[in-house]
Amino acid sequence: MRPAITVPALLSSALCVLTSLGISQTRTPPATVITGTLLGADGAPMKLAHVQIWKGTRSTGATRSLVGADGRYAIATQYAGTLKVQFTGVDHYSATVPLLVARPATIVMDVRLKRYEFTDSLGRIKAIGDWNHFKSSTGRALVRQPDGRYTLDVAMDADTLAYQLVGLEKSGAGSINGPQTGRYAYDNGGGYHSVIPVKDGHATIVLDPSALVRVPGRLRVVFGDGSPFWARAYGLIHTCDIEQGAYDDSSSAAKERKDSVHFDWKPALHRRTVALARERNPLLRQLLLLQLWDATTAAATHDTGVARRVIAEIPPSSPWLSLLPNAVGSVDDALQLVYSRAKDPGEPSDTMYNRKVVDWYERIASANPDSGVKVQALDIAIWFARTLRDDARMNADYSRLLTDFPDDETTAWWKSQLAPDRVLRPGIPMPDFHFTALDDTTVTYNPASLAGKMYVLDFWASWCGPCRGEMKWLHAAHDSLASQGLEILSVSLDENADSARTFRRGEWKMPWLHAWAGGFDNPQVKKLEILAIPRAILIGSDGHILAADADLRGENLMPTLRRALQSAGRP
Predict the structure, then answer these.
(1) Do 206 and 325 fall within a single domain?
(2) What spatial distance separates the first Cα and last Cα of the chain, rounded to whole Å?
(3) Is the pTM of this model over 0.85?
């Protein structure tokens, strides 16, 4: 049992965190303190719980605080700007509350989390854990016993075994802690590991259906009297979350019925329209306008008037671009609706929408204080400038990304696409690689085995949505050009080779050469700077790279391949 921690002690602990960073308590600038209670769905403290503060959209550098055994917490930060406060607890869904902190303050939030909802299909549950590095693709199935329990025996050399269960949570979206445990440990992702002892080299994971509490409750967040703005903002956000949840449930039911979605967005549209007309706070008006636009998009009403308001009234500096998960994309959708049909005469690929998008994202990168939003904006601006073939603008935004965010993953990806010394660039010999055939481990594909052939080296995975989107183009290329000597070698980055094999038994047969790399950590994949997929490279019969990336995506694939074959003197 953890000892109870009083609020004064928690506040002192929060200040000690600052001291550990080398900041004297006596000279520390005023901090924002977030405090209150964090309880489970039944109103009681949870077995283990944490509160974390995330700065803006960044996924690193979080401040975390352990919740006391009595459910009380306090956490402090000197950061001013957009914050996300995440509440987590064993057996419960996590919850995130957005905040905008302009000056030091004390914010009181009392929270009750929603308990996990469990599936009725217990026979499909798998366990992941220390033995397989918590990879869902190689999870092991629990076996039903005569007494109705489900168990899994795991051989281990360590003293304890940490595990999670996949498929137990109703939506099946991820892994959660198991109900049987000796203790729990935070998993650094908003959930918890169950930790059980190992005896004589074995540990037994046990799932007892009778131990599952199937009373989920509901999420509750109550602000103290001194936070009327955030109480109002959270109320608006939470209401929209409930409406979105209702739509998602309707969509799931439609899939079960194999029917269209029956959901009426009219009440939500009316509520958001009325609330926007009545609201006077500028920031809350921005929030309501984005929510109204999201509802019109979901309802497919194509309201150009609302889209124009979004473009005009949501400034690039808006904190909601950081605090709302889809806000940046919402403005992009508005731009597309208003401008995408206006093409300039003589420039069919240079649409007004593309230019407006580049303008918009460059303004965000300059004006928004959130570094994560800046990176996202520069990423999209570079992409659209590249689509426009505006090299000067693309290079300017790329240089800014290199200068301001040299260590970001997005920067690394663009370096693999645009850096003068990138590994995969047209005109140079294809670097050496070795990938084992998907269906025959005795076969290895490499540049030597493909010498004298023109081939597309395609990196993909069955879980990758954009990869699936490329399938029709790849099949069209194979059907039309294989007879002219074109080969395709698809390298799967699925963690489990069976996932790629299963995919090929479905709609897309992929009747060409296949290899399996097992993920982005494969040394050959790293050497080729494959940081995202889909990614394709065209290699000529002389072993030199002819084209890569955007020239081999979607509608660009066939023209690029035909030009290469014609240049090679093939019909």
Answers:
(1) no
(2) 77
(3) no
